Amino acid sequence: MTDQNQPVPGAQDYPLHSEKTIGDYFRDQVAIDPDHEFVVYPDRDLRWTYAEFDERTDNLAKGLLAIGMKPGDHLGVWARNIPDWLTFMYATAKIGVVMVTVNPVYKSHELDYVLKQSDMKALCVIDAYRDVDYIKIIRDLVPESLEQQRGYLESEKFPCLKNLIYMGPEKHRGFYSVPELMLLGQHQPEDSLERAREQFDNNDVVMMQYTSGTTGFPKGVMLTHRNILNNGFYIGEGQRLGAPDRVTLPVPFFHCFGCVLGVMACLTHRSTMIIVEDFNAELVLQAIHKERATAVYGVPTMFIAELNHPDFDKFDLSSLRTGIMAGSPCPPETMREVMDRMNMREVTICYGLTETSPVFTQTSADDDIEHKCETVGRKHPPVDVRVIDPSDGHICGPGEPGELCCKGYNVMKGYYKMPEATAEAIDADGYLHSGDLGMVDEDGYYRVTGRIKDMIIRGGENVYPLEIENFLLGMPGVLDAQVIGIPDAKYGEIVGAFIRTRPGYEDMTEEDVREWSIPRIARYKVPKRVFFVDDFPMTPSMKVQKFKLREMAEELVAAGR
Question: Which domains does the chain have, with CATH numbers?
Fold first, then answer.
């Protein structure tokens, strides 16, 4: 007989680790041990204790209030993993401002869309990243920034945008710099933070991350304080994190892998973050060696690069114990090497999606290598996970394939200004449909067996074919385009495109398509292989048979074409 008073996983009132906002929770952690290291950047020789970071984020938070930001406003951060990315994350959380994370490899086409769709009031940037010149893109999109007084921006194209902020000490016309905001903050009334705190709670949105979908339009996933703070806690529990742990993070902050699995898990367990700004196998190994890291995160391709570094044996990795591998399945031989050669015997696998904050299943530190390679672990305690048959909606039993769905505290608040897409993702019973096919075994371990959606996973980055198809249709001479994933030894999958050209463009080449795409979209989305066809294989109902295109692409690649 079951106890009627037992909490039910998936229920909104299921008791969680915390019902505080991220700002209040952080203050509690500071009070426990203010001098404990929180943030370390080995390459910058930068170290912030919990107390130092608390003071820094307080000043920045007050500076944002001083320039007119208020609870509920949207602030975008477009940068790699620099120290001030973290500073803005916590500063905005303290005053109820919603941080909109912008992929650092986005270019003008993508930024234009996000600026408009998110109703962004402020945008924080660095000068450039890889082949993307951020300042030039902003000047091209917002020419008014060169002429108008900062803080009073009036843009015809982006009516919500009022502030531009440069994340560094340098001065750019029309931009605030971080030191200036800090100075403004120091002159704000002490009670300004308290007044802001009174205007929001842990069920309010704290972060918005853009993910493309089957519509082809990126969607702003709204995540609350309650969502990501508690998700970070359960992720940290899976690794047995604690205050002595030092976690190396070479994964991007703009993505949940960095800011939830990394930053939130460290916060809830008072661990120390060792940040590598941009993935480089040697820098990761150096950081682990120098800082005596106990954990490191990455997608399988990152671990493969570290293991195959020519100087691998020169680094002392004996301090490692655990970490997270996520993003795509790990080959068994790689998992064995990670556990043996990197001493990560307690490494864990996490599964989920941005819409679920993101993790809802995870392997345990004690699971054997088979479970770490072949499954995505068991569900987190507060969450209800079901495998649902997409054809008739019945709940599948052990070993029966269906769609992985979950319900609970971790499900997003919704897609920003997209009620129909939200209703499509979250059913009437509150279950978030992942779009992934899988099954569960008798012991409660889940397996992912395929994807209902046509999503391509390239080196841990999600690429949505319809987004790229819609983009390619904007290229002169392209009549129609279909995008598929092609298996690849290095990246797991690469982006392939089948194109039908308009009359007069029969001489279009693969290189033409790539040259047109590279300045306009993130490089990981650019088709690696392009094939030109007269027609697409179709069903009787005139739907493109993408599985046949995938087969054609594999045959053409194998034949050296």
Answer: 22-201 (3.40.50.980), 221-451 (3.40.50.12780), 456-558 (3.30.300.30)
* Helical H segments across 403-490, by residue range: 419-425, 465-472
Query: What is the signed CA dihedral for 205, 209, 212, 213, rounded to 10 degrees?
Result: -30
CA 86 from centroid of its chain's CA atoms: 14
DSSP category for residue 524: G
The Cα 262–Cα 255 span in angstroms is 10
If we measure between CA atoms, which residue out of 1, 5, 6, 8 comes closest to residue 407? 8
Residue 387 pairs in a beta bridge with 404
How does pLDDT run across 298-334, given as a tens digit for each residue? 988 889 889 999 999 999 999 999 999 987 777 788 8
Q: What is the per-residue pLDDT across 3-62, written as a single tens digit (0 to 9) for each? A: 667 899 999 899 999 999 999 999 999 999 999 999 999 999 999 999 999 999 999 999
Q: First-to-last CA distance in the chain?
A: 65
**CA–CA gap between residue 384 and residue 379 (Å, rounded):** 8
- Residues near 72 by beta carbon (within 8 Å), at least 6 away in sequence: 96, 97, 98, 199, 200, 204
To the nearest 10°, report the CA torsion of 472, 477, 481, 484.
-70
DSSP letters for 300-312? HHHHHHHHT-TTG
Whole-angstrom distance, CA of residue 102 vs CA of residue 522: 12
